[in-house]
Design brief:
- It holds the Pfam family Dyp_perox_N.
- Involved in the recovery of exogenous heme iron. Extracts iron from heme while preserving the protoporphyrin ring intact.
- By secondary structure, the chain is α+β, with helices and mostly antiparallel strands.
- The protein contains twelve helices and nine strands.
- Helices cover 23% and strands 18% of the residues.
- Strands 1, 2, 3, 4, 5, 6, 7, 8 and 9 form a nine-stranded antiparallel sheet that branches.
- A hairpin with a 5-residue loop joins strand 7 and strand 8.
């Protein structure tokens, strides 16, 4: 397929009009009659995008984008396995291709043999994040460079994991505020991988769209709960050490992981029929927070600290002993914290009409054995939310730091 922009050199997706309204009814009619609308859209004097589509997130930097980036409204998670016979050299060539593709797409540029899916859109806050799974290192002859922090996660009693939708050699997280932009990037990366790696599993997610609320708010999950209140914040003094591997690596981290992070990925199905049978009061006691505001049951606003010792008139704990917010709180887990950045998912209904829906849980931390693992172990032992969720897939990926314009993601691992 030819590049749809090849006849208009220097014109990018980003310079095209982003709405049919901007093109005008006459332009639409002309396009239907003779295909001239695309020429009109690509004029040098065409106005810039003025909607959410014009927003871009830098691809280059110390850290990869898509970690501290505000959650986008659309997302794709995809894992690849290297094809038989493809080793370190082929993997390096693939990461170079993927990096060049991501560089272009995140600035709103078309790519070689572009499919045209997102031709009339801007970058829409697109981010592309790459990671390596445990199996990648053995298949590329790099087992001696595999981080100790990438050791497999322990088994949890509540797991019902499907191995076909778990793990993988390579992992890619895509996020964008436009569904077509997100799909376009997914398709471009999959095409880049042809002959080198094949898709192992792929999942689609969504969040609330930008501008859907009167003011910026923490997103809600499909249970209707505000989700992400206790996330560590970049302005906190220990944020970097909690989320990112330090310069030079560390005791368990090789130098190539400097400024990187570890992503735990879990597909968590929500048993919504059972959950929705609970009354509002019961739901709030399961979580330990008010459903409308996200405030702790002990009072205040969404950001008010939990009062884990407060009791009610009956002498019982206001936030129940098994409440999800209590068990997962950093102060109840030796300070363990992780940056949660999930997407919701809905993959239809089964033959009984039960929704296959829930959370594509993605959390980031400098050390999963100090972040995700201790919290999940405690949740596994007595979380009141457990009867209403099912962990159906799992993965742990080493996500290296970012790269500069002359490099590619993973270069220090693959060429160091």
């Amino acid at each position: 397929m030819n590049d749809p922009l090849s006849e208009t050199p220097g014109i990018s997706r980003r310079r095209l009009l982003g709405t049919a309204g901007a093109a005008g009814a006459a332009g639409i009619a002309a396009g239907a009659a003779g295909g001239v609308a695309s020429t009109a859209l690509a004029r040098d004097d065409a106005p810039a995008l003025t909607t959410v589509g014009s927003t871009s997130v830098p691809f280059h930097g110390k850290h990869q984008a898509g970690i501290v980036t505000p959650p986008q409204s659309r997302g794709h998670l995809v894992a690849f396995d290297l094809a038989p016979g493809q080793g370190r050299k082929a993997a390096a060539a693939l990461l170079r291709r993927w990096t060049r593709t991501a560089e272009r797409l995140t600035t709103g540029e078309a790519v070689a043999d572009d499919t045209g899916v997102a031709l009339d859109a801007g970058p829409s806050s697109l981010t592309v994040t790459f990671g390596f799974g445990h199996s990648f290192f053995g298949r590329t002859g790099l087992a001696d460079r595999r981080p100790a922090s990438l050791d497999p996660l322990p088994d949890f009693s509540s797991d019902a994991l499907d191995p076909r939708r778990s793990h993988g050699d390579l992992w890619v997280q895509l996020g964008a505020d436009d569904a077509l932009v997100a799909f376009h990037a997914l398709r471009a990366l999959q095409r880049d991988a042809a002959g080198t790696a094949r898709v192992r599993w792929q999942m689609n997610g969504f969040n609330r769209s930008a501008g859907a609320t009167a003011r910026p708010m923490t997103t809600r999950n499909l249970m209707g709960q505000i989700d992400g209140t206790r996330n560590p914040r970049p302005e906190e003094p220990d944020f970097q050490e909690r989320v990112f591997v330090p310069e030079g690596g560390g005791p368990k981290d090789p130098a190539w992981m400097a400024h990187g992070s570890y992503a735990v990925v879990r597909r968590i199905r929500m048993l919504l029929d059972d959950w929705e049978k609970l009354g509002l009061r019961e739901q709030e006691r399961v979580i330990g927070r008010r459903k409308d505001t996200g405030a702790p049951l002990t009072g205040g606003s969404e950001t008010t600290e939990l009062d884990l010792e407060k009791t009610g008139p009956d002498g019982g704990l206001v936030i129940p002993a098994a409440a999800h917010a209590r068990i997962s709180a950093p102060e109840a887990n030796g300070g363990a914290a992780m940056l949660r950045r999930p997407f919701s998912f809905h993959d239809g209904f089964d033959e009984r009409g039960v929704p296959d829906a829930g959370l594509l849980f993605v959390c980031w931390q400098a050390d999963p054995l100090r972040g995700f693992v201790p919290v999940q172990r405690k949740l596994d032992r007595g979380d009141a939310l457990s009867p209403f969720i099912r962990h159906e897939s799992s993965g742990l990926f080493a996500v290296p730091g970012g790269c500069g314009p002359d490099g590619y993601v993973g270069e220090e691992l693959l060429e160091g």
